Amino acid sequence: MQKKQTLSILNRLISILSLLLIFSAFGQDKMVVDTLYTRNGRIVIFEDRTWQFLHDLEFDGIMNERLHEEISAREELGFVQTWDTEVCYTSDRENDLSLLNDTLWLCVLDKKYGKFVMPVEGMVTSRYGFRKGRYHNGIDVDLETGDYVKACWDGKVRYAKYNEGGFGNLVIIRHYNGLETFYAHLSKLIVQANDEVKAGDIIGLGGNTGNSRGSHLHFEIRFYDAPMNPEEIIDFEGKMCKDENLFVHKSLFTPGAQPSNLVEHGESFAPIEKKVTSNRKYHRVSSGDTLSRIARHHSTTVSRICQLNGIRSTTRLYVGRTLRVK
Which ranges of the chain would DSSP assign to H, the alpha helix? Predict the structure, then answer.
């Protein structure tokens, strides 16, 4: 009996030592204290009581093997794209897309990953391009705080936390087509780093966090950290993907570039329409407020308020918080 226990302890130590070598190779600097086996895979427990799946630690970030091989073959470009759940941009240095002298083919939708879903259904309020003395690297879409924000394509969440650089609550998803999408200013995060998501999965609730003046979704599409005009790929008015294929060339990454189909025909963007007012109603939490009291005041129910804001009836209310009530 004692011999079996000794062998068990030795096997556990060997297992932990082998994991330490793996973590060292992947740049992990936290001490491993234990491992657990679950239905979803092996879990590693660190000294700070955090944990992570082993298969996530071994993931190298490559979601599109064909595209990665094609780019890697162009050694003169020196493009870098790692998997880092702590930073917005994963390049050791900025990837200079102006060095791309030929055209790459990117399959936006294929037989395996052929679904596209609009992140939100609102109207465009600010486009990609020069704005207020700087370049606006994404597109702003109208929403109300608490509206569902969804993943555009299948992929894996690379980043999901509050960003001090102005994005506020931010989710970044790397997709199997080789693109990354940014969803900023969220009021609540529903996913976490390394989660697998499908097109249409709810990843957060719309909001007004970070450098934002009014509730909206700031949405970006990036290729190897370089932003491109989302309207190159998405028809925001028609609520659909423009094409299942995207031909990637350096002109796409010119700051303020208009979509290729408009440039080819000498067209320009239509002006942004004024924001349409909605029948939605909000309540700003003050001292002494409870969900029951707020519900009675606005002739609604606690369950409806919880549904609209993605909260529970036991959620603690902070003074100054804005809740959607209708």
Answer: 2-25, 54-58, 65-72, 260-264, 291-297, 302-309
Domains held by the chain: number? 3
- My answer on whether 95 and 42 are in the same domain is no
Backbone angles phi, psi at 34, to 5 degrees: -170, 165
What are the helix and strand counts (H, E) for the chain? Answer: 6, 22
Reported as type and span, the H/E element at residue 234 is strand 234-235
Greatest C-alpha distance within the chain: 83
Same domain for 175 and 258: yes
Q: What is the pTM of this model?
A: 0.70
Cα(224)–Cα(131) distance, integer angstroms: 23
CA distances from 204 to 62, 77, 146, 281 (A): 24, 35, 9, 20
Question: Which CATH number belongs to the domain containing residue 290 in this structure?
Answer: 3.10.350.10
Q: Does residue 245 share a domain with residue 143?
A: yes
In angstroms, the CA 11 to CA 229 distance is 53
- Quote the CA–CA distance of 280 and 285 in Å, as a whole number: 16
Domain residues for the domain of 313 are 282-324
Residues 100 and 230 in one domain: yes
Kindly report, residue by residue over 63-73, the tens digit of the pLDDT.
998 988 888 88
Q: How far is CA 141 from the centre of its chain?
A: 15
Q: Which two tokens stand for residue 281?
A: 């109603």
Query: Both 53 and 77 in a single domain?
Result: no
Determine the Cα–Cα distance for residues 38 and 272; give it in Å rounded to an integer. 51
What pLDDT, on the 0 to 100 scale, is given for residue 193? 92
How many Å apart are CA 114 and CA 174, to the nearest integer? 15
Instruction: Kindly report, residue by residue over 130-165, the tens digit of the pLDDT.
Output: 877 778 899 999 999 999 999 999 999 999 999 998
The model's confidence at residue 24, banded by pLDDT at 50, 70 and 90, is very low
97 secondary structure, DSSP code: G
How far is CA 146 from each of CA 7, 87, 137, rounded to the nearest angstrom? 54, 25, 24
The position carrying tokens 């697998």 is: 196
pLDDT at 71: 86
End-of-domain residue from the set 36, 58, 80: 58
